[in-house]
Amino acid sequence: MSRVIRQSVLWMCLPVLLLSVVAGSSVRAEISDAQKDQLKSLAMETRRKSEAERDTIRRARMDLNAAYSDYKFDERKVKAALDRIRPAQKRLLELHLDNQVQLRQILNEQQFQRFSEMTRKMMSGRHGFPGGEDVMWDRWPDKEMLTSLGLSDDQRRQIRALMGPEGRRKGAFEKLRQDSEKMLELYSNYNLDTAAARKLIDSIHQDQIDHSEQHHKRQQALCSILTESQWQRLRKMLDERIREFHRRRARPDGSCPRP
Questions:
Q1: Does residue 255 lie within any of the structural domains?
Q2: SS (H, E, C) 114-176
Q3: What is residue 184's predicted lDDT score, i.e. its pLDDT?
Q4: What is the pLDDT of residues 22-35, one digit of tens each?
Q5: Which of 72, 136, 201, 218 has a CA positioned 20 to 30 A from the CA of residue 99?
Q6: Average pLDDT, the chain
């Protein structure tokens, strides 16, 4: 999975990496002034667009989380939030592809390979996942959380049945991982097959939709098992986990996040 992890962070931080290429002493002598200007322009535009889409997703996920906080959550609010998240996720994937295409229009094959080598070194030790923030929002409550709710024997039995085998729970997530790894292979090739990339984008986006639908069904089922008091306590713990996640990811200098 480590290769997919590095690719996911690369997608998120590509504007920073492009600017690093321009500034890097080991690379700047290999590119012309015109190429430097083009890379800067591409980096700035990519950052502007990607930050706008991620902000849309983040705000919609906050609304989705607020909807789930109600014991009898409003399905219309849930749908409205998902209807904002999904198109933005698709636009981000398309933005990544557009960026890859433009990068190859600026750099020749040798320069592109040098850039790829540089990004691999910069990404060493970093972590993440395509939709890593999504995974944080969708993560299943852990054993410690559930234990603290004072579950009855019947509730524990129902939750065990709901969780099911680990392999089944990870079905959509695993498909997302596999498709993202295929995209990594495509993006590592200078002669990019854009038709194949667009097909993979459609597949990855469907994976994201499937993952969100599975998560929604789990929320509905878990809510039906817990009492209102237990549900509210669980939501408070999940909200704190999300706040901690964002505190750890905060980078005031605008650089790539580390978990």
A1: no
A2: HHHHHHHHHHCCCCCCCCHHHHHHHCCCCHHHHHCCCCCHHHHHHHHHHHCCHHHHCHHHHHH
A3: 83
A4: 555 455 557 888 99
A5: 136
A6: 80
